[in-house]
């Protein structure tokens, strides 16, 4: 379209009045909120990062086309970068723990709701429509819940879950009038939502026994695309238990998880967009059960499907390409992985990600001399929080090569540049000098 317009411009006189330019994107979340108040529009914040594979999926498969253009006209849109100090501060303020997360905020400043993780296209726009309608506004849900609506009680609990507020959600439920609480306790959706909040609360407290109990109860429910994340919580909570006890508990999850893969992931039109988490959790479950053949089988199936989708073109779908890389890492497919990571570096030269990942892997595998040049290239593109991440592995490589003076100088330079914005991360970087 742009080339067509340019061609026409060569043969036509310019119109007397040019079309108004599109408004510039807001420079910050604060600016977006101010603009939204002025224009009486909601803000839609897309919390993402250059290393986020789920964000690649959303950018290329969902945040495109007529639906996206229509949505952009209805909202003030801001793309927040998780590696930039100001945006990371807002992540903490809004309690955002998962990328991508889409947070809608009304022109009055009240949160309208949020969407976590990637979604199939139709599901995303339906959910955004609900947010913008105001139906997911927590204050409205609470008002309806107080009137005795069981659906609203469940809505409130699920909203607290999206906000990672387990303790707060459970406290709200306990404060409901007994007549509402006693009835809603018998509702299956409410019961499941309470267990999900109990799981979040136990994770905050690092209470493995309660995590395992709550996760098991949640996994007994119809939780759709959340299944891999809850299974991960269970796997982590029981890993220190005796082998026989661990396997007996996890074996009960195998049939339901296999059914989930067959019906919602490995299908022509998957209900769950995050295939990567589904596959990796399946492999982790098989590994915990001691079934190496099943572990490799699910990884090789996912590898083959990913290769089919790419048709030999790494640039055709970055989400699939990056997911294939992770499957190869998990399958310990060394030669395949070396070749593929170099293809990714060539295909995506404009950010730090693949040079960093390849260099890091070389350093971790005992090849610091080979890994350092890739990390040096990554450092030229890195910024903010990810600059500290890259520096950490450059320091490790330099130390392994006994270039300690260079390592100390690099730490000092990074601390000077990033220490004010990211003090905790810089402290960890400085600690590598003593490791």
UniProtKB/TrEMBL annotation:
Coiled-coil portions: none
Domain Thioredoxin: 8-133
Pfam families assigned: Thioredoxin_7
Domain of life: Bacteria
Keywords: Signal
Signal sequence, start to end: 1-18
PANTHER family given in the database record: THIOL:DISULFIDE INTERCHANGE PROTEIN DSBD (PTHR32234:SF0)
Protein name: Thioredoxin family protein
Organism annotation: Luteibacter sahnii
């Amino acid at each position: 379209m742009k080339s067509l317009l340019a061609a026409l411009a060569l043969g036509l006189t310019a119109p007397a009045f040019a079309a108004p330019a599109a408004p510039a994107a807001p420079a910050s979340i604060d600016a977006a909120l101010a603009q939204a108040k002025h224009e009486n529009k909601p803000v839609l914040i897309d919390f993402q990062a250059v290393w986020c594979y789920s964000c690649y999926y959303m950018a290329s498969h969902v945040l495109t086309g007529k639906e996206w253009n229509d949505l952009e006209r209805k909202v003030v849109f801001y793309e927040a970068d998780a590696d930039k100090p100001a945006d990371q501060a807002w992540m903490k303020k809004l309690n955002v723990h998962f990328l991508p997360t889409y947070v809608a905020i009304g022109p009055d400043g009240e949160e309208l709701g949020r969407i976590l993780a990637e979604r199939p296209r139709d599901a995303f726009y339906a959910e955004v429509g609900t947010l913008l309608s105001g139906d997911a506004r927590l204050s409205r849900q609470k008002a309806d819940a107080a009137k005795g609506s069981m659906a609203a009680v469940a809505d409130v609990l699920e909203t607290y879950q999206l906000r990672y507020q387990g303790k707060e959600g459970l406290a709200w439920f306990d404060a409901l009038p007994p007549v509402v609480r006693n009835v809603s306790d018998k509702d299956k959706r409410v019961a499941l939502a309470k267990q999900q909040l109990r799981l979040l609360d136990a994770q905050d407290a690092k209470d493995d026994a309660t995590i395992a109990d709550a996760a098991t109860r949640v996994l007994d429910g119809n939780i759709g695309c959340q299944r891999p994340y809850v299974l991960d919580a269970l796997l982590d909570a029981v890993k220190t238990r005796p082998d026989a006890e661990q396997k007996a508990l996890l074996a009960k999850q195998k049939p339901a998880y296999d059914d989930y893969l067959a019906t919602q992931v490995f299908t022509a039109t998957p209900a769950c967009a995050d295939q990567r988490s589904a596959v990796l959790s399946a492999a982790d479950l098989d590994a915990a059960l001691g079934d190496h053949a099943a572990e490799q089988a699910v990884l090789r199936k996912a590898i083959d499907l990913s290769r089919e989708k790419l048709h030999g073109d790494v640039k055709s779908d970055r989400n699939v390409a990056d997911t294939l890389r992770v499957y190869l890492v998990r399958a310990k497919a060394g030669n395949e992985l070396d070749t593929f990571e170099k293809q990714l570096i060539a295909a995506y030269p404009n950010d730090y990600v693949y040079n960093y990942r390849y260099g890091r892997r070389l350093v971790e595998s005992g090849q610091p001399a080979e890994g350092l040049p890739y990390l040096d290239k990554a450092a030229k593109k890195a910024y903010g929080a990810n600059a500290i991440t890259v520096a950490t592995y450059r320091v490790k490589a330099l130390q392994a090569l006994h270039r300690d003076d260079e390592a100390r100088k690099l730490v000092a330079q990074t601390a000077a540049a990033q220490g004010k914005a990211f003090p905790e991360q810089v402290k960890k970087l400085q600690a590598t000098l003593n490791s």
